[in-house]
Amino acid sequence: MDSVSIAWWRRPSLAITIDYGQKPAKAEIDAATQVAKLLNIRHEIIYVDCSSLGSGDMAGTSPSSVAPVSEWWPFRNQLLITLAGMAAVRSSIGKLYIGALATDDLHADGRAEFVEGISSLMANQEGSITVEAPAIGLDAVTLVKTSGIPQEVLAWAHSCHTGDYACGRCRGCAKHFHTWKALGWIPH
């Protein structure tokens, strides 16, 4: 929901989806492809199998002993930003948007300090890419409202952490349901 809302709101020239070996990769790719078509945004898919390094719900394994929550994957945002940065340099893109929210601060890589640090690191390398989290001070409901994304476009978002179909039990499915309910798009 976060990335789809930011794509609607900020209209980047390129959307990048990364299959890094996460369980819901196919559904995430399908959703991103459809949203990119709807928004007339060029879409690139990167395939890098890091499944042997994963942890928790998204890897289909038990969470690591240092995991703050069940879907934690070690250094995930750092990995994704690096891979997206490689694609961005090739496409002469100078800014990456990520979907970090205020409520993502359970993860060190979902905090403003991380975004500032990774942006500084990426800007100091060839290509001088910056990283922004335009919704870092918002929760999901406020992001959806701020972005103005229509319900029929947000409906394409895939939030399940465990597979290609909503399990209804993971933290991603719970967030998706509670956001839609708070927006009044699901009857109370």
TrEMBL record:
Enzyme Commission numbers on file: 6.3.4.20
Catalytic activity: 7-carboxy-7-carbaguanine + NH4(+) + 2 ATP = 7-cyano-7-carbaguanine + 2 AMP + 2 diphosphate + 2 H(+)
InterPro entries, alphabetized: QueC, Rossmann-like_a/b/a_fold
A Pfam short name: QueC
EC class: ligase
Keyword Nucleotide-binding: yes
Family: Belongs to the QueC family.
Designated name of the protein: 7-cyano-7-deazaguanine synthase
UniProt lineage: Bacteria, Pseudomonadati, Pseudomonadota, Alphaproteobacteria, Hyphomicrobiales
